[in-house]
Structures are given as C-alpha cells and as structure tokens.
Amino acid sequence: MATYCQAGDTARVTFSDGEILNFNNSPLTITEKINYPDDPNCKRFVIYYSWNRAAGRTSGSKGISTPFGGIRVNTSNGTSTLEALCRGVDFNCGNYQWRSLGVQSSTGSSGAPSLWGESLNRINYYPGTAEFIVTKTFTITDALGSISTITKPQNITYSVECIAGCPPGTLDCGDCCLPCDEIFNQISGIRSLLSRIK
C-alpha cells in the first residue's frame, strides 16, 4: 500500500493506458491486487520461474492447472522446496493447494522465488479452451474514506502527481488562486454602488 500527497493537494492519478483521475481529498492510499480467473475447469498453462537458492540460481518452467495463487519456498520438511499454489502440477487437476514443483535445495537457502516478467501471459491450453486473462485491481482510498476500485489489464501501471492547493485566504478557481480579501472588497464596493441606485 502506498500513500500519496498532502492534505489540501489534488492528487492526479494517471494510468499507463491514458486514463486520468483527480482526487481532491488527499492524502490517497493505493493498493494493487492481481486477479487470476476462477477456473473450475482446470485450464492448463505454463509458469516460468527463477530461484536464487544456496546451490546456485535455477530457472525453469512447469505446467500447472489454474487457478494459480503464487509460488513460495517451503522449508518445513528439512529441505527448501519450491512450491506453487494451484490445482495441479504437470497438468493434473486436483484440490487447490500448495504443490511441489520438484525443485529442492539444502535447508537455509536464501532468496525468494520469482516469476519471469509477463510469464502468466504465455499460456498453453489443451485443448482449445478460452483465453486466460489476468487483471489488476487498483483500490484508491481518499482521506475521507471514500473508495474507488478500478480493474485494468495486468500490465497497466500508474503514477501520481500532487497538485498543491490554494494557500489560506485565497479562493481556488480551478487553474488559479484569487485573494479572498480583494474579492470581498470588490463585492462590497459593488453592493454599495447598487444600494445608491434608486
């Protein structure tokens, strides 16, 4: 979770697909969540992984069955074993649980496993199943607790620009700040003129 901007700022969130959203109640918090399709039919695809283990770096690929919930190193059995949260390995289909990918190292291995870049987009289906689409949900919460959720393709990123608000004693007119005292004096002068017109 990341926090952006100061109270009084306008937070402008720009997504890499060109969409721009402005939020007036800063600061904002933004979280990202990857969404894998709920797939009761056990669609099958390949993950590509890399692991810097004690014995040296190893990279490879493994066929698994969806949904896919991530990879981890399990050290509970006296060795370090690379596991995936899925319905099956080598395209078998079973219960959704942590399953060994068949890659081990001695206990004490350091370094978390990782997936290669856009590996989940390199899909192999058997046979002719529908497209496997991974999305990302952005949850944006402002200072008043208002929540906006936006779901986009997995590769979309965002940036935040903090636009300073008007200083005390001024009026925000959109693209400029007008001095309140001066405006008040001008309005008072107009009222005084109007009151003399009979």
Describe the structure.
- The protein has one helix spanning 180-196; strands at residues 2-4, 10-15, 20-23, 28-35, 44-53, 56-65, 71-74, 79-86, 88-89, 97-106, 114-115, 135-141, 147-153, 158-163, 170-172, 177-179.
- The protein is 9% helix and 47% strand.
- The longest helix has 17 residues, at 180-196.
- It folds into 3 domains: 1-36 and 134-165, no CATH class; 44-121, no CATH class; 166-198.
- The chain is rod-shaped.
- By secondary structure, it is mainly beta.
- The chain has a 4-stranded antiparallel β-sheet, with no helix packed on it.
- The protein contains 1 helix and 16 strands.
- β2 (10-15) and β3 (20-23) form a beta hairpin.
Strand order of the largest sheet: 1-4-12-13
Rg of Cα set: 27 Å
Give the helix level as a range of percent: under 10%
Count of domains: 3
How many individual β-strands?
Answer: 16
What is the average per-residue confidence, as pLDDT, rounded to a whole number?
77
Q: Approximately how much beta-strand content do the residues carry?
A: over 45%
The termini sit apart by 64 Å
Largest sheet: 4 strands, antiparallel
Helix and strand pattern: EEEEEEEEEEEEEEEEH
Overall shape: rod-shaped
- The class by helix and strand makeup works out as mainly beta
Give start-end ranges of low-pLDDT stretches: 117-130
